[in-house]
Amino acid sequence: xxxxxxxxxxxxxxxxxxxxxxxxxxxxxxxxxxxxxxxxxxxxxxxxxxxxxxxxxxxxxxxxxxxxxxxxxxxxxxxxxxxxxxxxxxxxxxxxxxxxxxxxxxxxxxxxxxxxxxxxxxxxxxxxxxxxxxxxxxxxxxxxxxxxxxxxxxxxxxxxxxxxxxxxxx
Length: 170
Hints:
The chain is built from 7 helices and no strands. Helix 1 (about 15-30) crosses helix 2, helix 2 (about 35-75) crosses helix 3 and helix 2 packs across helix 5 (about 120-130). The longest helix has about 45 residues, at about 35-75. It has helices at about 15-30, 35-75, 85-100, 105-115, 120-130, 130-165, 165-170. It is elongated, with a radius of gyration of 24 Å. By secondary structure, it is an all-alpha fold.
């Protein structure tokens, strides 16, 4: 409606953005130019918040593979002669990649890791330890966007009240 859609990242769909924007416009029902500008900003911030949540989830998936790599290293690299460590590291990385893309291999690796005490809780802990800095970044982005959105919604409400005659505000 008054603003072009934001630049979409690969995997994002214009239809999803437009549906979100339309739902927000329907809910806010802007009437003045200032209300429309605020509503557009609320829609764009809401899209950013959704984007941050999806990206945070993808980061978890990536770090989960890294956590599997780390656990496999602890199991498979013990006692490997120095001249074979590069080759063993290569196979460890390949196994972790296979874990990510092949469910049968993932089940086999999960079972093997569990035998050595690496249950899902241990893997989850490793994921969060490895991803802690990027999680702090995403938490900051989410909090900033949510705070801005709340401020915009408060301003929107104030604009709406300013446009309503005093006798109707009560």
